[in-house]
Amino acid sequence: MGATGTRTVGRHRCLGAAGSLAVASGGWAVGTLPAHDPWGLWVSHGTVVTAVGHALAYGGLTVLVVAWWLYGRTGASVRDTVVTLVWWAAPLVLAPPLYSADVYSYIAQGAMVLEGHDVYSVGPSVLDPEGRGGDASASVGGHWTDTPAPYGPFFLVLARVVAWATGGTIVPAVLGMRVVALAGLVLIVWALRNLARELGRSESAALWLGALNPLMLIHVVGGVHNDGLMTGLMLTGVLLALRGRWVVGSVLIGFAAMVKSPAAVALLFVGVLVGRAASGPVVRRVAKGLLAPGLIAAAVAVVVTLLSGTGFGWLGTQSVAARIHTALSLSSDLGLGLGELLRLLAGTDPDPVKSAVQNLGLLIALVLIARLAWQATTGRTEPVRALGLALLALVALSPMVQPWYLLWATAVIAATTSGGRALGAVTVLSAALVYETQPSGSTPPYGFVLAGLVCAVGVVLLRRDREAGERGRVPGRRRPADEALEADAARA
């Protein structure tokens, strides 16, 4: 990269850092503030400060998205991209929780485990308001106050450690959980680089989409979601399996599933890698691929559950999230609409109709995942790429969908795809879905309008890029993706 390219990277890096700083600054006024902060740091302010906070947060978010989009066209090196990630993430590290109150649930559930409550049968409301985790419990979103934990024992042990180390005090407890989230981001960066290298993709391009992504920054660093830890463990496990160390890889995926269960989908595609590498009769290879990774992960789940002392109640709470309607879930929206229509026409209860459509959506997702696994087995699709598409199908057809769920698929697709519709889709959606929720965690109707506008603009920009590519390159000019791939090869 020449001096001009270096200056361009620097300008976009500074632009994104300014946007991130504005989001963090606005978050101190309009973020997902706790119901009570004994330190008096994260507290509500007056109307003027709140208005300024909203302006800073939304303005900064837009600047961050634009900087990210422009940065992806610079052909920046891996080192430059990692440095940029640090610049963009740093302002969010000390900010209050942003765009979601889930971290308060994590802290409260950690305190519940510490005090001996069954987190898989009761919600955070059982905590003493004046005791450890009481402030976190009071800050949990209304739907989740009495909802059992849908998370695995491994994550709850981490939350318990944070609750014990901080006494459940809001500010240090949130920062403690953010350290866990940042550890997940570090794993994602390491795994993405190595996965891209193994698959012959551009490492810097993979980092741009999979780690520097504003959806990752906003919801994993800012929002402290455990999806970052789940994804980091899952990607690392897949990488090790791709390198032939599938036993250790399956163990890590087992730990990932003990954070959030969707990571278990990766076991099917690790099984494809195992079956391909195995020797002997076809039946033996197929059996080894189908059974071995799953049995190892199951053993991890049993051991972690027994050691954690939380019990096996997590097996019965994986569907609790589906009770809460989210407008991003296609199956839930369709089921609700159909159920209400039948209620008006025939006076039937809409809930069974909605549940049936949600189950149908999951069934279709399972069929698509099985088809992708078969394609990977027969060599029509690379197994890791098939995993990314499978996770994308699972997110699209799940009964509950949050914006940050897209990160499950995006991180995998980032390392396995250099073009195509899936890459374009997750790129545009990553830019759009950051607008779906307010910094306070609520979901206003205008959030969907903003997301729709960004989708429209993103589609136009991608189409323009594609048409420019079809017309041919400008003489003497290389595409940023080519520059990045060549730079990666030179360093290797």
Provide tags for this entry.
20 helices; 492 residues; mainly alpha; 69% helix; single chain
Structure described in brief:
The protein is mostly helical. 69% of the residues lie in helices and 0% in strands. α1 (3-30) runs parallel beside α3 (78-93).
Overview of this structure, please?
With 492 residues, this protein is mainly alpha-helical. Helices cover 69% and strands 0% of the residues. It contains 20 helices and no strands. It has helices spanning 3-30, 47-71, 78-93, 102-115, 134-139, 153-166, 170-198, 203-210, 214-222, 227-242, 246-257, 265-277, 282-308, 330-346, 350-377, 383-397, 406-416, 421-433, 445-471, 480-491. Helix 7 runs parallel beside helix 10, helix 8 (203-210) runs antiparallel to helix 17 and helix 15 (350-377) runs antiparallel to helix 16 (383-397). The chain is globular and about 65 Å long. It starts with a helix and ends with a helix. Residues 473-480 have low confidence and may be disordered.
